[in-house]
Amino acid sequence: xxxxFLKSGITDITPDNMKEALQQAIEIEIATLPTYLSTYYxxxxxxxxxxxxxxxxxxxxxxxxxxxQAATQAQEFSAKIxxxxxxxxxxxxxxxxxxxxxxxxAANVKQAMFGDPELIGKxxxxxxxxxxxxxxxxxxxxxxxxxxxxxxxxxxESPERLKARxxxxxxxxxYTIGEFYQGIEDCIRDHYRDDKDYHADRAQLIPDRGYYAxxxxxxxxxxxxxxxxxxxxxxxxxxxxVVDQASALKALETIVEQGEGADCDFDDKSHNExxxxxxxxxxxxxxxxxTLAFKKQFGDEMQVDKYFIxxxxxxxxxxxxPPAIASVSTLTNAVYSYLFIMSQGCYHADEHTQxxxxxxxxxxxxxxxxxxxxxxMTNFTYLGADGKQYAATATYEEYQFSSASSPKTQxxxxxxxxxxxxxxxxxxxxxxxxxxxVSQAGFLEKSNTPLMA
Amino acid sequence: MxxxxxxxxxxxxxxxxxxxxxxxxxxxxxxxxxxxxxxxxACKGHDRFGSNSCAGAGYCATETHVCHTLNNCxxxxxxxxxxxxxxxxxxxxxxxxxxxxxATPIQAERFSTLGANKDKSVWLLARELFxxxxxxxRRNVAEAPFSAGPPQAWLSSFGEYDSCGNSGDxxxxxxxxxxxxxxxxxxxxxxxxxxxTLKNCACDDKD
Lengths: 453, 207
Known about the structure:
The structure holds 2 protein chains of 2 kinds.
Chain A: H1 18-41, H2 49-62, H3 67-113, H4 147-157, H5 177-191, E1 220-222, E2 228-230, H6 245-260, H7 276-298, H8 323-346, H9 351-377, E3 381-383, E4 389-391, H10 407-421, H11 429-433
Helix pairs in contact in A: 1-3, 1-5, 2-3, 3-6, 3-7, 4-7, 5-6, 8-9, 8-10
Chain B: H1 85-88, H2 122-136, H3 152-156, H4 179-206
């Protein structure tokens, strides 16, 4: 197997390692999810503005401003936080939905060419994590929003090679994700021209079934005048049914365009949406600007992020938490893991079954179960091993389901344990009971059990 | 296109209908028809309070599901907020259970986030689709209590009202806008563009 760089620096991908490369692409996309999710849920997108205004008014009065001046400026400062916190959340969520799209696009290509995209158990199990094959390797943390965390995001999405000494890595090596995909695309152009190379009859996640939405209420924020601003553009990409060389290349190009940009800094024809790298660069610049603005007004001790960022510990694990929080965290991990079981199931299901899994399983889980649990987790606080108090957070550790019963049955049991420890999650009980019952293996065409029973 | 006329102060927050129903939840009747919002009921006595005199004049949703994928029947999806462009073109008109795009009731301030109705009023589109359905059934339709849907502040007066998502209250001010004026602008613009929205929704549906 050839897994070296060509003289051009482009990863040498050949028919010998093409299947492995596509699986690696899927796992690169999956690896970004826990880090982006943890940062997203570290942001309190809707702080209490009256409390902020009152505190800033008091501080400004202490600086000698008149009541009118203090009230006016306090309103301005509190509005800055309200807009930025919400924008930061929309920014990260807008990338997250596209990373899930990328996972699906890469899986579609693998399904069409080789079959069996593997999604289960592919989230990084050790943190800090590393992108498989990236040269040079760099540490990725599950961490709160910060200048440093955004610097890591920029490394992930960088269109330029990172300036550091390379080391030999285990997977197929590459300098940037874009170059890795370019290696796959080159191989497809050279060796997979025939329609017979693509099995369009295999189940894929395809457009026009309602699976993918470029924007939702979580990818928008409100400006100072409380008008909605949309982070994603409707023409920035969609699911693609991979049936031939052209559609396979289009799917892979979409991934790179959204991540690193295709036309200047943008990923869409209408130039309404920045590519991920430039979105994160803009967010990092704005975080720096708001931090400096508050220090300038209120002094160097002012840490503006305390008003809208939960103080979560880097790479927290469920075992770090006391029992009550741990039970909710374990349930959250099981629900997170079930998303991948359902997603992988979609590649083995007939059209109607796939629709039921996706719309009533994956959508429901992402929007109304996992999202609720991740939000609940940040309401807990605990003492870390260093004696400091932290906000808890979901840990996105893949749960190991037993083969003795279905994952859904085990999730219900975990819910019963968790709600016994924390009644604040009782409202999601019916949502969990309404989930489709998707098995871990063997998959759906072999099962006679109704999914939605 | 809707031919409804605004009642004074009907679109802002906190305004009240001319004859508000009792807010006592004990008065809520067992629903005769499940529908997504004020003004979307097909028959007399089919609103939340069982007191409306005519189709389209009901006060409140009879269905109270929270959000996308959580509704149990056809026609219950509030819409907007989540779902793809095609789904968001069918507020209150989804074909099947769990296909409703988003929460009910649909407050006047809600806008679609994708598709031909993006950044425009969800309730006005829902009402238009309802009127089209009633026209096909040769039914007369009365004015809704609020001509652009129930304001969020009015809904909140019946208890906690929550709509979907993490981005915050749709009827709000950071101190530099009037929520009522923002809503009025949304309603006016959405009403002006409704014919174009319907045409584009139909095109998207064909695609």
